[in-house]
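Office hours follow-up: a student asked to see two folded examples consecutively, so here they are.
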Amino acid sequence: MSKQVLRHDTNCRVCASDKIKTVLKFKDTPLEDQFISKENLDRKQSAYPLELAICEHCGYLHLPHIVNPEESYNDYVYVSGVTVGLRGHYDDYASEIKNEFKIPENSFVVDLGSNDGSMLASFKKIHMRIQGVEPASSIARLANDSGLPTINNFFTESTVEEIIKNQGKADVVTANYMYANIDNVIEFTQNVTKLLSADGIFVVQTGYHPDQFKIKMFDYIYHEHFSYFSVDVIKNIFNKCGLELIHVKKISPKGGSIRVVAQLKGGRRSIDSSVEKILNEESKNQIKSSGYFQKFESELNDIKERLISSLDKLKSEGKKIIALGASHSTTTLLYHFELAKYIDYIVDDNELKHGKYSPGYHIPVYSTEKLYSDKPDYVLVLAWQHQGSIKAKHNRYIESGGHWIIPLPELVVI
């Protein structure tokens, strides 16, 4: 395997310490969102090590095995707008930022990793000047075609210079569910510092593993997510890059997330009590300790055992089992729980996935309409985090005699 594709870091990407310890080891997986078309079925997809390691010096939790980001974004097909409830969430989010931090109308907002422009559209609605930065070319094109100005590039120093030259410094910089996808998080954050106006704020929304682990959500761990942040680690990163953390809020998306806000060091805003509160909570729950991760691993092994035992029983009775959900996280779940052999095919609402085949296992993906024409006995809900909206949307399947298998956070058959 060439060095350009896979790299193994033995030093911390935040503090450079060599005190790195693997705390969770999952099954090797291919790149989790590389669903392929029929004509590429003979193309072998490599599986890469998937491990979580912690820096024993600064507590940074990360993947030590890094797949080159250019590999991840070549065939990237995730579009924010298709995620259940995300557009409404972004509207609320944009309004909250404007009101809570008193951002005047016509301020300049830059969204990093802006995807199809869903977040930009929410800021545009409340009369902000907007600019997106998105590395995936087909998705950047989609945003530009929708009238949401987007630079198709990674967020480098030259991108910062281009934005400042054309539009000045940013009053608000947002990074939604992409801060974890940054290889060099220090360099990236330093670039944000350069882009911010004197009174500007940097808002990061990212998955929060201490809350995700409470609901056994291990499938948010995949190759595209290089980092798994605690508030303590984010505060440390910001501090190294000339920023100070002034506000933290826990939010519900992705099974448990945080929204953190920073300003340039010495900025006019005072530090909210929420920062200290969550730092104390992290310390009390010992989220950096070996025991914390061992307990989590043991809980996952127990659920996996019970799920496989149930699936074996259903298969022995001749039941037809399909799966619902074709996303990054479902690849981690399929591989680590070794579920592929039980599943005939996958259904999903995202049209971009229809007619594609799952990474590595090459399980075919169809529209959820196939639930009704095919009437499988059981549907294993791989997208279990969205089980509420899935059950509501496909109640007709249950009424016609079908069954849901919800694998997490506790195994339930409906």
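And the second, which I mentioned at the end of office hours:
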Amino acid sequence: MQQMPIDVGRLGTCLCVVPPEPRVNPETGEVRKDREGNTMYVVGVAVRQRDRRRADVIEISVPVEPRGVSEGVPVQVADLTATAWSIGDRSGVSFRASGITPAGPPGGVAGNPVPAKGKTGGGES
């Protein structure tokens, strides 16, 4: 599967709408880990492109627990990639980032996302 980098600078507003939680395999109930053994977390983020009225909600997997991210908090996303997938008659796009951090207050200075240690490519999502 090919990972496609996303230019987060063009996304506009990103807002946490579902707080971070460990990513769980729905069939086994086991917490998912990446290739380096890091627990994967998933965060629901509403994304509104600049100059667009419509917002989309995407689930983003990260290999480090996002600290300070909760529902309603504006966020910054580091190293966002999209991967198209297909299993049987189902298909979709999964999103992964190296980190998600709270953004600064509106009009203020935003913090820099801190990527997770290790590789950001490949692995389960």
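Two things to take away from it. The domain at 3-102 is CATH 2.40.50 (OB fold (Dihydrolipoamide Acetyltransferase, E2P)). Strands lie at 3-5, 13-22, 41-48, 55-62, 75-78, 81-87, 90-96, 99-102.
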